Each structure stands twice: as C-alpha cells, then as structure tokens.
Amino acid sequence: MYQLIKNEGTARRGRFETVHGIVQTPAFMNVGTSAAIKGGISSYDLVDLKCQVELCNTYHLHVRPGDELIRRLGGLHKFMGWERPILTDSGGFQVFSLAKLRKIDEEGVTFSSHVDGKRIFMSPEISMQIQSNLGSTIAMAFDECVENPSTREYSARSCARTTRWLIRCKEEMARLNSLSETINPYQMLFGINQGCVYDDLRIEHMKEIAELDLDGYAIGGLAVGEPAEDMYRIISSVEPHMPANKPRYLMGVGTPGNIIEAVSRGVDLFDCVMPSRNARHGHLNTWSGIRNIMNAKYAEDLSPIDPDCGCPTCQRHSRAYLRHLFKANELLAMRLAVMHNLYFYNTLMERIREALDNGTFKEFHDQYVELLDTRI
C-alpha cells in the first residue's frame, strides 16, 4: 500500500508498505542481479549502507542456480540473507538485450541462454511462476522491450502486446498467490509503461494499464541511449496519467542528476547498475562531483574519498590507500569503492526525502542537479 505524504510541485514524498517492510520514498533500489551486489557486498553490508530495497534478476536466477532450487531452499530472502523488500524484474529486458537469437510471438519469447546457448521459452505466465518461486516482494510484469529508436508502427504493436501480456501476468499472479504452497502469497505486481519515444503512445498505454489497478507502475524502455531531454519529456508526459495512489518506478536510471530531475517530475523508485559499476572502475560519487581515484594526484592524499561522507570506507581509509588497492588489482579496492557509491546513492535519496519533508526540494535540486554529475 502506498501513502502519498506530501507534494512539492510534482515531486512526491511517500511511504510504501510491503509484507517485508516499509519503504520510504523516493528510494533507490540497489541492484544485486544474481542475488549479490557485484564488488563483494553482502546483504548484511547493505543494511549498514542504508539500502531499503534490493533488486534481483528473474532471468539470471532462472538460468543459475535455478528458481526451483531457490524455492526448495525457502525463497530468495532466506537464500541471500536479506529480510527487507526485494523487487525482481521480469527478465524481459535481458531477453531482448542479451539474446542474439530470439523469436517473439503472442505466446512469449523463445531465445538462447547467454550462459550455455540452451533454448529457453519465456512467457508472462512463466515469468510470474519464476518470480513466485523466488518469493520476491514485488514482481515486474513481463513486457516487450523494443529497440530505441523503433518505428512508430512497431512501437504501437508492441504496446498492445505488452498490455495483453500484462493482463495474463495479473491473472497468473492471482492464481499463484491463492495457492497454499506459495512462498509469498502477498507478492505485488507492477506493470510497465512502454511506447519508445512517442509521447502519444506512452500516454495511451499508461491510461490502458492504469485501469488494471495494479500495485505499482513503472516507466520502461528509457535510459537505453536516448538523450536525457527525451527521457525527462516522456516522464512529464506520462506522469499525469499515472495513478497518484500507487508507487512510480523509473527503470534503469541513473546518474544522481537524472534521479533528482526525475524526482522533480513525480517518480518514487529508481534502480541502476551505475553506482556499483562505476565504483569498480574507480569512479566515485561525492557531494562535490565525480572523483576518479586513479588520478596520480591522489597517490599521497590522506583525505577520505569525500569529507562529507559517513560511509565505512570514508570513515576508515584514505584516497591514497584506495588508489593503491586499484593499482595493485586488489579485490578490496572494488569492495570499498562499491560500499562508498551505494552509501552515497542511498544518502542522496535520504537527503531528497528530507528536503521534501522540509519543503526545500527546489533549493536542493538547484544546488546539486548539475554538480553531482560533474567530474572533479
């Protein structure tokens, strides 16, 4: 259940109640694709890093170790030692981005596993069954992710198919949640808005899926290479048609500046591999901008990555030490860097919530929206 606490302009401050705990929104979901954050971060670390929701990947866990195995072991929460909410994406994006060979029809998609080439069939029903086996808090609907750019004609056909698939997802989830052996009979379903970069298709599709009265709604198919201005325009076009009493999720976004801009346009939830991926290459977020810890100027710098950061890395280690670890190819470099970036992102959301609580979000936006994406 989502409670809208207050607005500042279009920006929303909310509270999202789930069977695995309450999520204060806006919130960033930390991406643990295969039930782990890349960079040596455990579920227990995530608690200290202020993570509220972890995102795991349906397709990857289906391929390895197998959703049936996870089910036998008590579900994903028990498997990975994480008690807070988990969102599982449907596998749709991976099917369309990883599979070199795929065949789409009304029933679903046939494609080759990126691991061993084995043929896999994924449909709305199968995606729901896999996510039910995982027992996640929130399951994402199985949708068609079109290439960007795509023709208007194909985008329109794809939207219609995504709606038909969404209806099948809802029906299958209702069936699964009614079974006595289901791990999480309170599993929620979020629908996904598609329509490429065509505003009218986006709006029409959002109106259609809003009528299905789902637990939440996502904007998908963005952050795939289109200019940021297109993304912001589409969010602003779709937002008035998204139910105000349901959480809104912008999939795969993004930089701190992207997040601040999207919050100002009414988005509640975000996820992105960017903070952990960038950290593993030595690119670290700070309240003064992005720092490349590989730079020679940090070789003798005993300062923390960011003097304004309270993360375990900044409290204990220097820029010089972290740079040394990267140069020496020590695994600890990635762990300490990822811990810092995730803590930064979760603190960013905390400060956004505080600004909304205090009615000062516009000032926060103006101070940080460009600064945080600037390279030092």
Count up the helices: 15
Distance between the termini: 41 Å
- Poorly predicted regions are none
Task: Identify the CATH homologous superfamily of the largest domain.
Answer: Queuine tRNA-ribosyltransferase-like
Share in β-strands: 15-25%
| CATH architecture label of the largest domain | Alpha-Beta Barrel
The CATH class label of the largest domain is Alpha Beta
Describe the structure using short key phrases.
three-stranded antiparallel sheet, 2 domains, queuosine biosynthesis, Queuine tRNA-ribosyltransferase, eight-stranded parallel barrel, alpha/beta, 16 strands, 376 residues, metal ion binding, single chain
Q: What is the secondary structure topology, with strand pairs?
A:
Elements lengths: L1 E7 L2 E8 L2 E5 L1 E5 L11 H6 L4 E5 H6 L3 H6 L3 H5 L5 E4 L2 H7 L3 E3 L4 E4 L6 E4 L1 H11 L3 E3 L11 H26 L10 E6 L5 H12 L5 E4 L8 H11 L9 E3 L5 H9 L4 E3 L2 H7 L2 E4 L2 E4 L19 H5 L2 H9 L3 H28 L2 H8 L8
Parallel strand pairs: 4-5, 4-14, 5-6, 6-10, 10-11, 11-12, 12-13, 13-14
Antiparallel strand pairs: 1-2, 2-3, 7-8, 8-9, 15-16
Helix pairs in contact: 6-7, 7-8, 8-9, 10-15, 11-14, 13-14, 14-15
Brief account:
The chain has 376 residues and is an alpha/beta fold.
